[in-house]
Write a structure and sequence with these properties.
This protein is an alpha+beta fold. The chain has one domain (41-153): Nucleoside Triphosphate Pyrophosphohydrolase. It contains four helices and seven strands. It has helices spanning 2-11, 14-24, 68-80, 136-151, and strands spanning 29-35, 43-48, 55-56, 59-61, 82-94, 100-112, 120-126. The strands form two sheets. The chain has a four-stranded mixed sheet with strand order 4-1-6-5, with helices on one face. A three-stranded antiparallel sheet has the order 3-2-7. It is elongated, with a radius of gyration of 19 Å. The relative contact order is 0.21.
């Protein structure tokens, strides 16, 4: 039974493939984030204007058709006026609480000067062992990445 259906599927136009896939497959939001550590091993956090837990790692949503590495640099620039370079992929993960996929990069600041935006009022480096109140998943991610960097000798 499955084989004839697959043969039929192959004959359908692409727009119908996309339509059927969109209505039958789970939907995920996709986001990106940047982990930036200074020479002392402190992590850069943003003070978000719209969150219950104001402090968090830089990031945002992926736009349709955009590559994650493009999104992380775009989001950082839009929120701060500063430029970053993604050095390496750090982690890809999904949330347990809701359908969300997040791609995190280890990054470095390459230029610009901080300009507060409607989303970000402040940015500051924090010791990994003394993080402010923030989303637990982000706190775990920061601590995991800091440990990985220490283990790698960076």
């Amino acid at each position: 039974m499955l084989k004839p259906l697959l043969r039929l599927w192959r004959l359908l136009p692409m727009w119908l493939h996309v339509f059927v896939t969109r209505i039958t497959q789970p939907k995920f939001n996709a986001g990106v984030s940047a982990l930036i550590f200074d020479e002392r091993g402190r992590v850069l956090l943003f003070k978000h204007t719209y969150r219950k837990y104001e402090w968090g790692i830089p990031g945002g949503a992926l736009e349709y058709g955009e590559q994650p590495i493009e999104a992380v640099t775009r989001e950082f620039y839009e929120e701060t006026g500063m430029e970053i370079e993604a050095l390496q992929l750090c982690k890809v993960g999904s949330a347990r609480e809701f359908p969300h996929l997040s791609v995190t990069y280890l990054c470095k600041i390459t230029g610009g000067e901080f300009k507060p935006s409607h989303e970000i009022s402040e940015m500051r480096y924090f010791d990994v062992d003394n993080l402010p109140a923030m989303l637990i998943g982000e706190k775990e991610l920061v601590r995991w990445a800091a440990k990985e960097m220490m283990d790698d000798g960076r």
